[in-house]
Specification:
Length: 179
């Protein structure tokens, strides 16, 4: 793309002197690319730090760094799914109802982000199913239907993904026992 721009912008006209505009355009593109890459690298570093904290059950630190990564790269699916998975641990670590509800709301927001950014990826639907399943397992039994729908959609997109098949089977078992 840049080469095509450069060629079209540097075409020499018999009547006009050469322009410095192509170099300016390329300089701006290079600067934007550089700062974007730095931002993504910082997001990745924040996510890794949050994941390390999560691994040693330092949930307060994990929340801060995973949230920082999510703000920097809101459509990065690995950050979204990582946060949804971490939320399950965070919910289990608290008995305060208001905190649990806030975490469920965060999981729901993450699920919506995953589906908005990646509607044709099975992982996004798997993440949405996980968020709905958390709700169902904490007493919102009507969310079993939402979880089943998202698992089924994910299976349509990737029918051979073994963890997804197992999660769908487990949901069916829990759904039957919840009735």
């Amino acid at each position: 793309v840049c080469a095509g721009l450069l060629v079209s912008l540097t075409a020499v006209s018999a009547t006009a002197p050469p322009s410095r505009r192509p170099l300016a355009v390329l300089g701006v593109l290079a600067a934007v690319s550089f700062f974007h890459a730095v931002g993504l690298a910082r997001a990745d570093a924040a996510y890794k730090r949050g994941a390390k904290a999560q691994a040693v059950n330092d949930f307060a630190i994990a929340k801060v760094y995973i949230a920082r990564a999510r703000r920097a790269a809101p459509c990065e699916l690995s950050y979204i799914t990582g946060e949804i998975n971490a939320i399950g641990d965070w919910i289990n670590a608290t008995r305060v109802v208001e905190e649990r509800l806030a975490l469920l709301a965060l999981a729901e927001a993450d699920a919506r982000a995953a589906l908005a950014c990646h509607p044709r990826q099975s992982t996004a639907h798997y993440a949405a199913a996980s968020a709905a399943r958390m709700h169902a397992e904490l007493g919102f039994k009507d969310r079993f239907v939402d979880a089943a729908r998202e698992y089924d959609r994910a299976l349509e997109l990737d029918p051979k993904f073994t963890p997804l098949l197992e999660a769908r089977r487990e949901l069916s078992r829990r759904q039957s026992s919840a009735r």
